[in-house]
Amino acid sequence: MSTDLILDTHAAVGMPSAPARRAQSGAWRWATLIAVLAVLLLQAGCASTLRSNVTTFQRWPADAQGATFDFRTDPRYAQDLEYQSYQQRIADELQIQGIRLARPGEKPRFWVGFDYDTATRRIQVQEPIFDDRRVWVSPIWVPNVGWRGGYWASDPFGPRVVGSRTVEHDVRTRRLQVEISDGERRVFESTAQTEAGGSGPINTVMPYLIRSVFADFPGRDGQTRTVEFDTETRAIRR
Questions:
Q1: Residue 106 has pLDDT above 80, yes or no
Q2: Which of 77, 78, 71 is nearest to 112 (CA)?
Q3: What is the pLDDT of residue 177?
Q4: DSSP labels, the chain
Q5: CA gap 172, 194 in Å, rounded
Q6: What is the CATH number of domain 47-120+172-237?
Q7: Where are the domains of the chain?
Q8: In terms of pLDDT, which residue wins out, 44 or 190?
Q9: How confident is the model at residue 34, as a pLDDT?
Q10: What is the C-alpha to C-alpha distance for residues 209 and 154, in angstroms, rounded to an integer?
């Protein structure tokens, strides 16, 4: 039985012909690839954005402007240069807010403390499985020459999604907590955290966490908000 007869038989019983089946399969593959590319492009577009979630509780006094502050340094970090670097950044942010660092021997009104850490958790996500198979290109008849061709080639419609699989990833959460007391009375608590930074050290995101705490300082009591940064310009996105 010839190939033409086989194709005619398929059409007679309501089945699509081979070219039609290839076209349908190709359209499905292209649609899948376009969807995957759209997700990848969206992720690429978000690559320059860092987001942090900030939760604040405060009883900030109305007469704080111009007052002085100093740090209650955790003894564990007394000689820690990394800790001192973050302490200086926090001091800079507070002075932007209108309170100044107490001079040596000067009694401060506000006492500032902070701590930071990194927590790791494992999550499961679904990823597509691609089948980048090769297809057989049939030989063709060339007049006055004979049969030519017949070879394996990449599928012109691209790789197919043939399923999905569950993979595990580690997600790291970096956290900064800042506390300010007016004498012995706590007047400000804020926690900023982010899952940005990949597997890198916490110092890559700490400048953003510190700025997140003091964005719109002192903030609304009991509010959790998201602060977005453009990592190329380091500017806060409104």
A1: yes
A2: 71
A3: 98
A4: --HHHHHHHHHHTTPPPHHHHHHHHHHHHHHHHHHHHHHHHHHHHHTTEEEEEEEEEE---TT-TT-EEEE---GGGTT-HHHHHHHHHHHHHHHHTT-EEPPTTPPPSEEEEEEEEEEEEEEEEEEEEEE--EEEE--EEETTTEEE--EEEE-TT--EEEEEEEEEEEEEEEEEEEEEEETTEEEEEEEEEE-TTTTS-GGGTHHHHHHHHHTTTT--TTEEEEEEEETTTTEEE-
A5: 8
A6: 3.30.160.670
A7: 47-120+172-237, 127-165
A8: 190
A9: 55
A10: 48
The model's pTM is 0.66
| Distance, C-alpha 203 to centroid of its chain | 17
Measured distance CA(85)–CA(74) in Å, rounded:
14
- Among 3-7, 26-30, 95-99, 167-171, the range scoring the smallest mean pLDDT is 3-7
- Does 235 have pLDDT greater than 70? yes
Please name the amino acid found at residue 205.
V
Residue that is written with structure tokens 């198979």 in the block: 133
50, two tokens:
């860092």
Kindly tell me if the per-residue pLDDT of 24 is higher than 60. no
